[in-house]
C-alpha cells in the first residue's frame, strides 16, 4: 500500500497541488457598525468582496442607501463602483451627497435593457479593470444591480429569429423566463465575481405567496439561482416612524430591521436595525448618528436620564438634537469609539426565505 507521500506525489504530477483556499479578505463598509457586524462579525467589516450578495425587502427600506455606502467604501479603498439601473430610479444627486464619487473613472452608471446585457456588461468591465491592471490588485470592485425583479430576460424582448416581441405574444413560459435566465448565468457569474474580486450586490423586491399558512410567505422574484449563488442574503423590513395622531400624523421615516438569512462568510441569522428618515426633498437618509445613539443606549453604554442622553461632554441632550450635534461637528467617530469589545448580537429566527 502506498504511503501518503507517494499518493501526494502522484496527485501533484496528475493535477498539481492544492488550490489556494477561497476566503474573503476584503469587506465593504456599510457605514453602520451594527450592520457590519451582522454581516461579517466585525464592526469594521461589511459586505464581502468576491461574493454575490442579495438584499431584498419592501420599498423605501434603504436598499439603495446601503448599497451606495458599499460603493463609497469600494472607492475609498482605491476601487471602482458600477450601478446597473433596471428600475431607472437611481438618484445621482443623493448618492453624491452621501459621498459617492461620480467621476467617470471612478463610477459607471448604466441602464441595460435586458438581464443578459447587464451581466455581460458587468463581466466585461471587471475583466478589463483586472486584465489591464487599471486598479491596484487588492482594490475592490462594487457592482450594484437594481433590481432582479425589474430585469427583463432577452427572450421576452426578441424571439428566436431576432424579431422584437410585443406583449400579445407572451405566454406561460415567459412567466419563468427570468428564473431560467438567472439559472443559466449565475453559476459562471459567481466565478467571475470571485476571480475579479467583485462585490456584486443584487437588490430585489419582496412578494407574498398566497395561501401560505405555515412558514414565511415572503418570496423574491428571479428563481432559485440568486438564493443559491448568493453568499449573503439580507432581508430588510420594519415599521413606520411617525409623530402625532389622526390628521396630524406625520410619517418621519422607517425603522429598518436587517436579517441576514444566509451567510456563507460568517455567522448567519444575525440582525441589525437603524433609522431611515425621509427628508424635505422627498429623499431618504440613512440616519447613522441617531441609529448609533439608539444602539449604544440598548447596550447600556450611553446613560439615559428620563428623556435625556448623557454625552461624552457630560451634558444631557434629547436624542434628536444630540444626533444633529454629532453630525454638524463631524463627530460620528466618537460614537464608533464607544462600541463594545465584547458583544453578543441579537439573533433572528433561522428562517429560509424561498425564491420563486
Strand-helix topology:
Layout: H1 4-15, E1 27-28, H2 33-40, E2 47-48, E3 51-56, H3 63-76, E4 80-85, H4 92-98, E5 107-110, H5 115-131, E6 141-146, H6 154-157, H7 177-195, E7 198-204, E8 207-208, E9 218-219, H8 225-229, E10 232-243, E11 250-263, E12 271-278, E13 284-287, H9 288-298, E14 304-305, E15 308-310, E16 316-317, H10 319-328, H11 332-336
Parallel strand pairs: 3-7, 3-10, 4-5, 4-6, 6-7
Antiparallel strand pairs: 1-2, 8-9, 10-11, 11-12, 12-13, 14-15, 15-16
3D shape: globular
Number of continuous helical runs: 11
SS elements, strand count: 16
- Give the CA-CA distance, first to last residue: 51 Å
C-alpha Rg (nearest Å): 23 Å
Helicity range of the residues? Answer: 25-40%
Structural class: alpha/beta
SSE topology string = HEHEEHEHEHEHHEEEHEEEEHEEEHH
What is the percentage of strand-forming residues?
A: 15-25%
Main β-sheet: number of strands, strand sense, barrel status? 9 strands, mixed
Mean pLDDT, rounded to whole units? 91
Query: Main sheet: which strands, in order across?
Result: 5-4-6-7-3-10-11-12-13
- Which residues form runs of ≥5 with pLDDT under 50? 351-356
Write out key terms for the chains shown:
11 helices, alpha/beta, 9-stranded mixed beta sheet, 356 residues, 3-stranded antiparallel beta sheet, disordered C terminus, 31% helix
Describe the structure.
By secondary structure, this protein is of the alpha/beta class. The chain contains eleven helices and 16 strands. The protein has a nine-stranded mixed sheet, sandwiched between helices. The chain has a three-stranded antiparallel sheet with strand order 14-15-16. A hairpin with a 7-residue loop joins β11 and β12. α5 runs parallel beside α7. The radius of gyration is 23 Å and the shape is globular. The chain starts with a helix and ends in a 20-residue tail after the last helix.
Amino acid at each position: 500500500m502506498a504511503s501518503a507521500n507517494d499518493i501526494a506525489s502522484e496527485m501533484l504530477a496528475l493535477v498539481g497541488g492544492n488550490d489556494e483556499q477561497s476566503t474573503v479578505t476584503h469587506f465593504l463598509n456599510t457605514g453602520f457598525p451594527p450592520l457590519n457586524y451582522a454581516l461579517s462579525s466585525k464592526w469594521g467589516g461589511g459586505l464581502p468582496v468576491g461574493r454575490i450578495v442579495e438584499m431584498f425587502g419592501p420599498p423605501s427600506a434603504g436598499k439603495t442607501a446601503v448599497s451606495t455606502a458599499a460603493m463609497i467604501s469600494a472607492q475609498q479603498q482605491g476601487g471602482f463602483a458600477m450601478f446597473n439601473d433596471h428600475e431607472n430610479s437611481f438618484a445621482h444627486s443623493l448618492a453624491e451627497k452621501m459621498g459617492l464619487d461620480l467621476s467617470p473613472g471612478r463610477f459607471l452608471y448604466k441602464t441595460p435593457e435586458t438581464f443578459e446585457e447587464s451581466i455581460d456588461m458587468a463581466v466585461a468591465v471587471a475583466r478589463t479593470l483586472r486584465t489591464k491592471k487599471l486598479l491596484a490588485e487588492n482594490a475592490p470592485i462594487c457592482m450594484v444591480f437594481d433590481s432582479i425583479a425589474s430585469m427583463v430576460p432577452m427572450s421576452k424582448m426578441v424571439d428566436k429569429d431576432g424579431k422584437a416581441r410585443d406583449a400579445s405574444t407572451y405566454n406561460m413560459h415567459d412567466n419563468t423566463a427570468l428564473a431560467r435566465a438567472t439559472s443559466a448565468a449565475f453559476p459562471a457569474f459567481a466565478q467571475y465575481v470571485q476571480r475579479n474580486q467583485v462585490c456584486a450586490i443584487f437588490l430585489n423586491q419582496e412578494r407574498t405567496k398566497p395561501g401560505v399558512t405555515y412558514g414565511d410567505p415572503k418570496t423574491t422574484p428571479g428563481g432559485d439561482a440568486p438564493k443559491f449563488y448568493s453568499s449573503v442574503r439580507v432581508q430588510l423590513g420594519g415599521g413606520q416612524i411617525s409623530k402625532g395622531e389622526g390628521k396630524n400624523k406625520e410619517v418621519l421615516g422607517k425603522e429598518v430591521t436587517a436579517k441576514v438569512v444566509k451567510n456563507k462568510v460568517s455567522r448567519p441569522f444575525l440582525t441589525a436595525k437603524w433609522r431611515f428618515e425621509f427628508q424635505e426633498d422627498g429623499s431618504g437618509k440613512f440616519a447613522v448618528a441617531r441609529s448609533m445613539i439608539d444602539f449604544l443606549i440598548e447596550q447600556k453604554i450611553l446613560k439615559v436620564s428620563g428623556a435625556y442622553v448623557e454625552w461624552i461632554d457630560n451634558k444631557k441632550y434629547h436624542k434628536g438634537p444630540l444626533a444633529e450635534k454629532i453630525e454638524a461637528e463631524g463627530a460620528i467617530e466618537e460614537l464608533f469609539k464607544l462600541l463594545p469589545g465584547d458583544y453578543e448580537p441579537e439573533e433572528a429566527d433561522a428562517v429560509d426565505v424561498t425564491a420563486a
